Amino acid sequence: xxxxxxxxxxxxxxKKLQSIGEKLRELRKNAGxxxxxxxxxxxxxxxxxxxxxxxxxxxxIASLLRVLEIHKLTLEDFFTGIK
Length: 83
Description:
mainly alpha
């Protein structure tokens, strides 16, 4: 039996991850940060991990929740408009 973690992502899933990354980038820029590295440093996030999130890499829900806390957003607010 294969676990979900081992299954390759579909094109549709990859596009959704890219949409999530784009939204994170938009939030960062709206917060006044030109650089994802500065944002990560100022908010005590792993710079590499956060950069990957913005690029649409697969990430954990825990990491996403931490970033949403920084932006003072709920999951519902964040996912509004992401299809």
